[in-house]
């Protein structure tokens, strides 16, 4: 049981660098803007903070940051119509904000996929 718990909680918290873009906001389609971001999955939300180098230009300038509530969200591999990139996951939230997340690293994207599925209590399908 303790091993199971360790695996479970271990999978629920994850962080790393991902490419991310919103594709809808409040249900409306928005123009893609792929950005390299630190992504932190914690509890049922995911936080993104741009890795852009704004700190170079003087102290406290804040980097773009946003959090997405994943309660009730769906996670799926994005179709070719959604993006020409490889390793793209589509996240759809009940609030109408849909995101694509992507990394060139095949293993990393699988880890993110599993972690997201675990967070949402979805059985993992390859
Ligand atoms: O789905 P789209 O509109 O073909 O997405 C591409 C565009 O957003 C493009 O930028 P422009 O706003 O200048 O058209 C991006 O550079 C591409 O990366 C987007 O497509 P991919 O297939 O990379 O997600």
UniProtKB/TrEMBL annotation:
<protein>
    <recommendedName>
        <fullName>Rho GTPase activating protein 12</fullName>
    </recommendedName>
</protein>
<feature type="domain" description="PH">
    <location>
        <begin position="11"/>
        <end position="121"/>
    </location>
</feature>
């Amino acid at each position: 049981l303790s091993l199971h718990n360790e695996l479970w909680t271990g999978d629920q918290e994850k962080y790393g660098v991902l490419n991310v873009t919103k594709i809808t906001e409040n249900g409306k389609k928005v123009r893609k803007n792929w950005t390299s971001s630190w992504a932190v999955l914690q509890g049922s939300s995911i936080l993104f903070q741009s890795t852009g180098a704004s700190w170079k230009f003087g102290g406290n300038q804040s980097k773009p940051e946003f959090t997405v509530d994943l309660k009730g969200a769906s996670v799926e591999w994005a179709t070719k119509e959604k993006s020409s990139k490889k390793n793209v996951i589509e996240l759809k939230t009940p609030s109408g904000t849909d995101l694509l997340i992507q990394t060139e690293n095949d293993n990393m994207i699988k880890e993110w996929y599993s972690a997201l599925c675990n967070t949402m209590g979805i059985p993992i399908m390859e």
